[in-house]
Structure formats: structure tokens, C-alpha cells
Amino acid sequence: MAEPEASLIDRIASYDSVAIVGLAKNAGKTECLNYILRGLHDRGLTPAVTSIGVDGEQTDAVSHTRKPEITLFEETVFVTSESFYRSRGVTSKVLGIGTRATALGRLVTARVRTHGKVILAGPPDTASLRRLISDLGAYSPDVTLVDGALSRMSSASPAVTDALVLATGAAIAPSIPEITRRTAFVCEVMRLPALPPEMARRLEDVERGVVAVDAHGGIHDLGLSSAIALGSAAADIPTDTALLYVAGAVTDRLLATLRQLPQTDGMALAMRDFSCMFASREAFTAFTSKGGAVFVARPCRVLAICVNPTSPAGYRVDSRRLCDSIKEKTGIDTIDVRLNRNLP
Amino acid sequence: MTFTRLTASIPGLRHIADSLEIMSAPGRAHLNALEMTADTGVIAERLDKAGKAVVAVSDPAAARPLARLLHVLMCVNDISGTLRRLAAGQVTDDTELFELKTFALQCGDISRYCAEMDLDAVAIPDMTATVAILDPDGARIPHFFIYDSYDPRLAPLRRRINACDAGSEEGAALFAEATAVEDEVRCALAARLRPLARVAIEALAAVGELDFLIAHAKLAVAQGLCRPCIADEGDTRYTALFNPQVREVLRRRKRDFQPIDISVGEGVCVITGANMGGKSVILKTVALAQTLAQLGLYVPASRASVTVVEEVRVCLGDDQSELTGLSSFAAEMLSIDSALKEASSGRRLLVLIDEPGRTTNPEEGRAIAGAIISCFGALPSITVVTTHYSGLHASRRLRVRGLSNAADGSIGSIADIPLLMDYSLEEDSAAAAPREALRIAAMLGIDPTLIDSAARFLTLQQSQL
């Protein structure tokens, strides 16, 4: 049991940046992050930690008060807002202060001197987050961890971080089969096959709308401002289209439109990365079961799944069975960090 | 009046502000607070500093320290809030002390690079006393926390915290104890730093001024601005005066701005000339150059001799606003009236009035223009009026040379007009305004039916007179 833990921490440390994202509030993201931070510390590794924005659902928007809950160890570099910095439970050295103000003040970068708890904060948008991760490189962390906020899967997009750890659990559904189904669907989307690199590179410049790729690799702009307009322009999709690349969001409506088009039989669909997928599991399954293949330009690595078997509603599912069920369905290492933490 | 307030009334001043590559918030604050003055001594002092910066940025040998200096300036934050709190005896937190330390270190770098550039326009106050307090270990690195060396109790406490299990009660108690010691240290630091706050406030202002001066010098070199001679009396004279904003627009269209020579003095100077002859641009540029000179900045000309005034008033007559309920005529009259009252009080103004009375019927309009020239002519101000009206008598008349007679045949499109227009000014003895409106209209490609009809009306009017 201790072995997968060791390999998970080592695998995390082998990437430059890893996002930790929760499938729902109370899915156990914070525990998962704390588990990883402790694991890194135990191996003598020094991470940098930040977050995408401030997880609003965990913060009192009026008083901005919140209990610090991320435990940081010596030498860890962390980023938070000025106001959260004041309520830190660590002794730390200020290394830099950003110029852009967030709702909670500017961002402070500091290095921990005595361990303790902090509240993390970070840039509110993915472009700034990407820049911050790159800037944190100046402090030579072994890995930069991003506390990805619920509802902002984009923080875990391969455009921002190199890999991710998914937190799931009883908070998202009341039964093991349903938790497994929902988690497996997210994993399936996250692990959609990648387009050939050459094709992905050519499609990277498409910023909006939908383009059709024919069997010979020729790219045809359908002249749509967004994928929403596809419904009315469906007749314009060339019959020799092998792949439709959607630059924006893939929605239920888009999938339903494609499903009902006669010429889309055997046509593949591609998007930038998993964070562009906004369609429901039902719509996605309906599309793929009709033979539609889905690809991403930038694949994503899911390093592990952390589960919290306890729901905030009070019920609890069997941790071991849940881990086994998810692992079996997804093939991804699945751990209950609470059980693992107590191992010698 | 401050630079910020002047931008509301002086056309083109906002463009200058936007063209200045100021790096820091204190630099921007210096510009915004810059006061226009009629004190020739103050202006000369500012121009001396500006001149030193121009020499420094023009020196190829200074390019390297200049690049480094600009980089440091770019990293300077506005810490005036922290400094005010320190000066008031308040205790500052770690992020504030970090910023103060960073700034104090930056001041040292800035002084060094200035010395390397031989730039002594602004003396940066010595902040080493502040550095010494906030850098007890002498690391000279911009980071800060309550260092162990501030209090002998800190190091052992912190060792014990780290030896405890994270999240343990014992650790929490030790952390609270350490926090209490840190708070004592912060209070002591605030007390030691308080007497230095004044120097830091001066240093922040000095850095802002330096940032501004370098941005100004770079602009002056890039745009070919000149240092004006400042005088208490006599005519204001410009050689090769140009409007930076209009020139920039023309350059984007691959065309040149034709600089003009102009001198204005006490009394009223009337400028006439063809439509599209640049009269309004001349007025705006004279207003801009006067303002820049009295802010202590370089002016857009190859040579300039500027007589100080107490205020610059620009009446453009295009302030029509549906929101204030004023017609363009009402707005123009109110603006001229305000300038007249100000000038009548004995203050010496530069008043620039663009085509007064053009927005009402021509007979009354001409009468109003005549009255304005007469009223302002009796005052100690410098007044420049542009007009299309004939028969107006002023102490001085200038006329835009305009299109030569030879030009007619070569006009192919609207774009050709500026190419064939001579924007320079000449002394004009005749009181009659040039009549080129129909020619210009024809060149603009206006329907000949309209032009011919207008010509017949003109003949009819003249025969009736």
C-alpha cells in the first residue's frame, strides 16, 4: 500500500507543474493537496504552490475570512493575496509582490521558514497563471502545484499545467457505481486520444469557430464565428470531411447537431483540450456510441485519483471498494489519502 | 494648474502624456502633479534638469547604464501609502517592509546608474540607513521577513516549531509565542524607521522626477523637440513649429508635416487662410507649445523663444454638447466671455480663438468677431484669432499661403490637396480674407452643379453690394 504512494509523489515531482482539481466541492481536494505536500516534504523535495484565483465557495465574500487549511513545510514557495498573507500560520520570507491587484489585494510570493497553514490565492485567469508558474521557476521548485478551483477546470488544462491529480468522492454522488461512472466520464474526457502532432500544430492557430479537415489533411474554414452557429451552417460541412475541429466549447447542442447530420457518419471531432468539453456524459455517450471519435490537440496526463469516501451530507461509502471500482474502470491509480496518511 | 488639469483644456497635451514612456507610478505621479508656472526662474531650473537628461540619454556610452536604470525604474512601486503610515507612527506589516526595503535597495542602484551616466539632474536621497535596518544580515537581496537576527528568541523558537508535528497543539502554541516576538520586533522596526520616513518620501519623489525626466528626454530626442528660451516680455517666436500628434498621423499615411514659423505678441493677431490650410492646427500647436514651455518641458519646434503668460485659454468653438444643452454658438460665446473676463482683470493670458462667430448668421458673426478683436486688442494679453471674415482690423495679420494658382490642374483627388498646400504663414496687409472656399470645394470633387450655383450666388451678392 505504501508503494503506490511513493510512486505517485515521485511521478508528481517529475513534472514541472501539476494541478489538483476537485470534481465537486468537498471532493477532498484540500486533503489531496496536503497529502502531496507532505509526501514531497518527506522526500526532501521543495514545491511551489499557487492557486487559480480564490476558491470563492470556500471564502466568506464579505469578511474574506477563511480558515487556513493548506499545510506548507520549510522552503516551500507559495503565492497568496496580501490579505491572506496577513492571516498566514507560517513564518515566511516575502520574495516578491505582484503589481496587479486582485479582489484580495496584490499577490505575494513567499518562502516558508517555519511550517504551518496558509490560504492560497492566485491569478484569476489562466494566461496570468501560466505566467506566474513560469515566474516561480526562478525559485527552482522541484514541482509547481496549482490548487485548481472547482468550476475552473481550465486551470488544469494542458495549456497551463503539465499534468493533474483528480479529487473525487462521495460528495459527487451517493453510490459507488454513480461516483465511479461520473469520475470515469471525466477521466475519459481528460484522456481523449491526441491528434497527430503535425495536425495538432496546424490546428493550434485556429482561434474560434469550426474548421473542417478533409481526408488529405486540408483545412477548410467554415466561416463560423463560433460553434453555436454550426446548426444553421450544417449543410456547408463538406461531405469529404474527416475531422471537425472546434476551437471553443463542445456543448450538448453541438454534439446533438453533429449526431443528426447525415454527412457526419464516421466523422471525427477534435477540440483544443479536455477543458473545452462542456457537454454532459449523456450527450457525449450518445455521440460516441454512434461511432463519433473525439480527439484533443493537447492531451493531458491524469497522474492519480484521490477519493474522499465521506460526503458532506453525512453518508459514507466503503473506501476500499470505491478505490477499486474507480481504478478498475479508469485504470488510473486511485487512493484514499486519509487511509494512506496513517500508514507508517 | 497641474498637468492633469491642463490636459482637459490644452489640445495635444494628452498625446504628449501618452507618448512619454514613464516607467513607474511615482514617475506618472510627478508628471500629473507638474504645475504650469509663470516663474521664469522655476522654468529655467526645470529646463536645466531636462537638458541634463537629454544630454545623458543622447550619449551612446550611457546606453548600458540607461537600460539598467530603466529596468530598475520599471520595478519601482508606489509605496507612498506605506511611507505615510510609517511617518504617522503606525506599525507596518511584512509586505510593506518588503516594499520599503526593495525601494531602498533600488535607490542605491538608481544612484549608481545615474553616476555611471554622468546624470546629476536629480539627487536621489541616501537610503542606506533604511537598508541597514531592514537587511540585518547584509544579504542585499530584496526579500524580507522578521529575520532571526532581530531577536535572540526567534531562532530557537522557530527551530522548535519545525521540530513539532505540523498541526500539533504544541506547534500552534510556539507559533503564537513566536508571533508575539515578531510583533515586538515590528513595533521596534517601525520606531526606528519612523525618523527615516521623510527621507524615503523625498527619495520616492526624486525617483519619480528622474523617471519623468528620462522619459521626457527620450521623447525630446526622438521627436526633435527643442529647449525654449524663456522671457518675461517680448514676442513669442517659433521656428519650424510642428504638431506632434498631427505629424504622427501624417507619418502613418507616409506624409510629412510642414513645420511653420510664427511669432505672436501682445495684442491681437488675426490668421486668415484657405480651408484645409491648417489654421486650427496652428492655434492648437501654439497653445500646446506655450503650455509645455511653462511646464518646463521642451517644445515641438527647432527654435523657440517663449514669453510667459499667466494662463492659456483655447476657444475652439467645437464644444457643442447636447448634454449640457448648449449649442456650439453658446458654448463658444461662454468660453470667449470667460477668457475676456480673465484678461480684463489684468492677467496676462495667451488666448487662442478659432473662427469666432462662425456658427451664427454671417453679418452678426462678423460683428462679433470684430468686437472680440477690438476688446482683446485693448488688453495686455496675447491673442490669436483665426477667421474667414473679411474687413476685420487687427494689429497684426497673418495669412496661410495656401494653394498656388498653378495647383488647380494637378488636383486628382482629395488626398492631393495637402500635398499642394503651402501651410506657411506670411504677413498680410489686406483686410480681405482669401476666397478659396469654392476652389477647395471643387478640388474636393463636390458636384459641379452645386459649385456653379454657389459661384452665381457670389456674383449676385457682389453686384448687390
Structure notes:
The complex is a heterodimer of chains A (344) and B (465). Chain A has 2 domains: 232 residues, Rossmann fold, CATH 3.40.50; 100 residues, 3-Layer(aba) Sandwich (Cytidine Deaminase, domain 2), CATH 3.40.140.80. Chain A has 11 helices and 16 strands. In chain A, strands 5-6-4-2-8-1-9-15-16 form a 9-stranded mixed beta sheet, with helices on both faces. In chain A, strands 11-10-12-13-14 form a 5-stranded mixed beta sheet, with no helix packed on it. In chain A, strands 3-7 form a two-stranded antiparallel sheet. In chain A, helix 5 packs parallel to helix 10 and helix 8 packs parallel to helix 9. The longest helix of chain A is centred in the middle third of the chain and has 15 residues. The radius of gyration of chain A is 21 Å and the shape is globular. In chain A, 47% of the residues are buried. Chain B has 465 residues and is an alpha/beta fold. Chain B has 2 domains: 210 residues, MutS, DNA mismatch repair protein, Chain A, domain 3, CATH 1.10.1420; 211 residues, 3-Layer(aba) Sandwich (Rossmann fold), CATH 3.40.50.300. Helices cover 52% and strands 12% of the residues of chain B. Chain B has a 6-stranded mixed beta sheet with strand order 6-7-8-4-9-10, sandwiched between helices. A 4-stranded mixed beta sheet of chain B has the order 1-5-2-3. In chain B, helix 15 links the parallel strand 7 and strand 8. In chain B, helix 7 packs across helix 11. The radius of gyration of chain B is 30 Å and the shape is elongated. The relative contact order of chain B is 0.11. At the A-B interface, helix 3, strand 5 and strand 6 of A face helix 7, helix 9 and helix 10 of B.
In which range does the helix fraction of chain B lie?
40-55%
Strand order of the largest sheet of chain B: 6-7-8-4-9-10
CATH topology of the largest domain in chain B: Rossmann fold
Chain-averaged pLDDT of chain B: 89
What is the string of SSEs of chain B from the N terminus onward?
HHHHHHHHHHHEEHEEHEEHEHEEHEHH
Structural class of chain B, please?
alpha/beta
- Major sheet of chain A: 9 strands, mixed
